[in-house]
Automatic annotation (TrEMBL), chain A:
Keyword Transport: yes
Membrane topology summary: Multi-pass membrane protein
Keywords of this entry: Cell membrane, Membrane, Transmembrane, Transmembrane helix, Transport
Species this protein is from: Gandjariella thermophila
Domain of life, per lineage: Bacteria
Transmembrane segments: 30-47, 91-110, 122-142, 148-169, 190-221, 241-267
Name of the protein this chain belongs to: Putative nitrate ABC transporter, permease protein
Phylogenetic placement of the source organism: Bacteria, Bacillati, Actinomycetota, Actinomycetes, Pseudonocardiales
GO cellular component entries: plasma membrane
TrEMBL record, chain B:
Native source species: Gandjariella thermophila
Residue ranges crossing the lipid bilayer per the database entry: none
Keywords associated with the record: ATP-binding, Nucleotide-binding, Transport
Gene Ontology MF terms: ATP binding; ATP hydrolysis activity
Gene3D superfamilies: P-loop containing nucleotide triphosphate hydrolases
UniProt entry tagged with the keyword Transport: yes
Listed Pfam families: ABC_tran
ABC transporter domain: residues covered: 12-239
Record-given protein name: Putative nitrate ABC transporter, ATP-binding protein
The keyword Secreted is annotated on this UniProt entry: no
SUPFAM superfamilies: P-loop containing nucleoside triphosphate hydrolases
InterPro entries in alphabetical order: AAA+_ATPase (IPR003593), ABC_transporter-like_ATP-bd (IPR003439), ABC_transporter-like_CS (IPR017871), ABC_transporter_ATP-bind (IPR050166), P-loop_NTPase (IPR027417)
């Protein structure tokens, strides 16, 4: 129903509508954003093309045009897309498992004291270990490198998601749960209707962070023990002295990380529309 | 639109109820009776256990000893029969007004079509028709309390427990909410336990006012003569107000 009849109900106070948002003209903001990127590229091209040696040795780096040529070349090869698909598959597998287990265990830790007593000490000991330090363990544990890389990605994303979920559930006002319980709602009803939806803003915070660290770890793991994948290809390019290839790899990683984070962010915003937030972005 | 299911009011009896937090008892042996369909107001100094009393009746807060009886049956935990209305609204902020009002009906596993119909009826009844799709944050405090009232009434409870539901509203909105409450309660006379600090509010709403003392016991019971809305100029009402004020002053409210 979209009837926003301003005709007020007989005995009502007027609705508090969200205030009109203040905003700059969007075209100008996009111009500023583009200008910052272009300036960075121009500086890079200028420094490398002029073989500048300002203690930092820009003459060693490929120029923007070298990189652009290499990028176009790689876009025409099948192996580029194979690498993309491999890295994305690893990310999605590791991150997906981490999302399911992180949210599930996060809720459990927040709601069940027994589970908290059993699991919390274990998690607190394992959590400070950087996931990439688990590479030897992963190699020993798993029959193939592929599973090891997914494992490391999973561990990296798991803890931020777990911790954010646990905090989000704990921070919920009890009034929501009390309301549903006095309607006669039981444990599952409360979980489904209050705990999970109420925790979503916090959960998505954890998913965003988790996606970021998942990329760091999948790329590092690929560089150490991968066959195929963007991280592997980037390191490979370095070992065969294809410096433009290294930069292409880095840019690819950046774009992949950015687009997956944006996807998580977008999904989170869609699902948590009910949150009061400034609408200037 | 017709909404069938006639509401049934339950009698309530509290029998030596002791309840509290940590080491301290807030209620120490409280006895209280409410007739089916009675509007009973609880007044008293802050910290005297009014809210604890409501939470104990609702089943949210455990009773240490004594009994809470609804129609002679001891209560065990929460139930849809006893609805609790909060001071801050207990609406779920991610659900629209309609979906909030439908929630207790979903909990009772009422089919979707009937759910819609009953929710729409009560939303209309509290004066929120046209606001079904609004989120709670898009509504004023008074409108949120209207929505909460609709949600409570849609569930068809036998006892409604109201914990200072209008305390956070401005004077004018509070008066219109009172009028609305009396109006719907007259049409569906459920048993109501209503906590307030406000003497005029107590007199405007109550059949009887129970004044609690700081020890969590009933210090006085004041009958309020009617018809509603109570006319403060009649001698009977003036006398009731005087008795209530005297009882409250004695308890240091």
């Amino acid at each position: 129903m979209t009837q926003v009849s301003v005709a007020e109900p007989a005995v009502a106070d007027p609705p508090a509508r969200p205030a009109p948002r203040p905003r700059r003209r969007p075209s100008r903001r996009w111009l500023l954003r583009a200008a910052s990127l272009v300036a960075a590229l121009l500086t890079w091209q200028g420094l490398t093309a002029a073989h500048a040696r300002l203690w930092v040795r820009f003459d060693q780096l490929p120029t923007v045009t070298d990189v652009a040529e290499e990028f176009v070349h790689q876009l025409g090869t099948a192996v580029y897309y194979q690498d993309l698909a491999d890295s994305l598959g690893r990310i999605l597998a590791g991150f997906g498992i981490a999302a399911v287990l992180g949210v599930g265990l996060g809720v459990l830790l927040a709601r069940a004291p027994i589970a908290a007593d059993l699991l919390q000490p274990l998690f607190e000991v394992v959590r400070p270990i950087p996931a990439i330090a688990l590479v030897p363990i992963a190699i020993l544990l798993f029959p193939s490198n592929e599973q090891g890389i997914v494992f490391i990605t999973f561990v990296a994303a798991f803890f931020p998601i777990l911790v954010s979920t646990r905090h989000a559930v704990r921070a919920q006002p009890t009034i929501w749960e009390d309301a549903v319980r006095t309607m006669g709602g039981g444990r599952w009803r409360v979980l489904r209707t209050v705990v999970l939806p109420g925790a979503l803003p916090g959960v998505f915070g954890g998913l965003s962070v988790g996606m970021g660290v998942a990329w760091i770890c999948v790329i590092s793991a690929e560089m150490i023990s991968g066959q195929f994948g963007v991280g592997y290809r980037t390191w490979q390019s370095y070992t065969v002295v294809n410096y433009p290839g290294v930069i292409v790899g880095m840019l690819t990683i950046g774009l992949l990380g950015w687009s997956t984070s944006a996807a998580v962010e977008l999904l989170g915003r869609r699902i948590t529309r009910w949150l009061p937030r400034s609408e200037t972005r | 639109m017709t909404v069938t299911s006639e509401p049934v009011a339950s009698g309530l009896r509290l029998d030596g109820v002791r309840a509290g937090y940590h080491d301290a008892d807030v209620l120490s042996g409280l006895d209280l009776d409410a007739r089916p369909g009675e509007f009973l107001v609880l007044a008293g100094p802050s910290g005297c256990g009014k809210s604890t009393l409501l939470r104990s009746v609702s089943g949210l807060h455990p009773v240490r000893s004594g009994r809470v009886l609804v129609d002679g049956q001891p209560v065990r935990g929460t139930s849809a029969d006893r609805a609790l209305v909060f001071q801050e609204d207990g609406l779920l902020p991610w659900r629209s007004v309609l979906r909030n009002v439908e929630l207790p009906l979903a909990v009772q596993r009422i089919p979707r079509a009937e759910r819609r119909e009953r929710a729409a009826h009560w939303i209309d009844r509290v004066g929120l028709a046209g606001y079904e799709r609004y989120l709670p944050r898009q509504l004023s405090g008074g409108m949120r309390q209207r929505a909460q009232l609709a949600r409570t009434l849609a569930a068809n409870p036998r006892i409604i427990l109201m914990d200072e539901p209008f305390a956070a509203l401005d004077v004018r909105t509070r008066a219109s909410m009172r009028a609305l409450l009396v109006d719907v309660w007259r049409a569906n006379p459920t048993t109501v336990l209503f906590v307030t600090h406000d003497v005029d509010e107590a007199l405007a709403l109550a059949d009887r006012v129970a004044v609690l003392d700081r020890g969590g016991r009933i210090a006085a019971l004041v009958d309020v003569p009617h018809p509603r809305p109570a006319d403060p100029s009649t001698a009977d009402n003036a006398a009731a107000k005087a008795r209530l004020l005297a009882a409250l002053t004695e308890e240091g409210a």
